[in-house]
Amino acid sequence: MKKPAGNLNKMAYDKNNIFAKILRGEVPCKKVHETEFAFAFHDIAPDAPVHVLVIPKGEYASFDDFSQNASPEFMKGFFVSVQEVAKMLGLVENGYRIISNHGSDASQTVHHFHVHILGGKNLGRLLG
Ligand code: AMP
After folding, report:
1. Mutate to test the pocket of ligand 1, among 17, 18, 43, 99 (most ligand atoms within 8 A of CB)
2. Separation of 94 CA from ligand 1 center, angstroms?
3. Pairing of strands 38-42, 31-34
4. Which domains does the chain have, with CATH numbers?
5. How far apart are CA 77 and CA 117, in angstroms?
6. What DSSP string describes 69-120?
């Protein structure tokens, strides 16, 4: 896995979180896509007809950590990969939502940065 570019305000990262294990191939997943920067797989408990998670190939605990510590090249590569996944899933024409939870008020449960891609139906307004 790539190392973060900088270390300012680096959050603690648990190398044994479930997504780190998926990246290392220690835990199975339903893979959707992989790039130099990112890995995408189906959420185990989908909240929409299409619910895919995209994670960076690097040790970032959340969006907050990623935005402070990943290099601009890595950030660009990651977010281009997110769009590629949405396109591969056929979501671009009708639309999709991306969500990333940081911290307890957002109910983040897995502390490896991830973007949820949700689609496949009209999702209504944010937060129901
Ligand atoms: P968050 O609450 O934003 O941290 O989202 C974590 C997401 O990871 C949830 O939607 C879970 O359903 C999903 N999840 C947890 N374990 C797995 C797993 N082994 N494979 C796929 N998705 C998972």
Report:
1. 43
2. 24
3. antiparallel
4. 26-107 (3.30.428.10)
5. 17
6. HS-HHHHHHHHHHHHHHHHHTT-TTT-EEEE---STTTT--S-S--EEEEES
**Do residues 48 and 119 lie in contact, with contact meaning Cβ atoms separated by under 8 Å?**
yes
In 10-71, which ranges are continuous DSSP H helix? 18-23, 63-69
Of the residues 33, 42, 102, 114, which is catalytic? 114
Q: Is the pTM of this model over 0.70?
A: yes
The finding on whether 43 has its CB within 6 A of some atom of ligand 1 is: yes
CB 21, CB 93: distance < 8 Å: no
Is 108 near ligand 1, meaning CB less than 6 Å away? Answer: yes
- Give mean pLDDT in consecutive 10-residue pieces for the chain, a chain of 128 residues: 52 94 98 98 98 98 98 98 98 98 97 98 90
**Contact in structure between 51 and 80 (CB atoms under 8 Å):** no
User: Which are the contacts of 4, defined by CB distance < 8 A and separation ≥ 6?
Assistant: 10, 58, 59, 60, 65, 69, 70
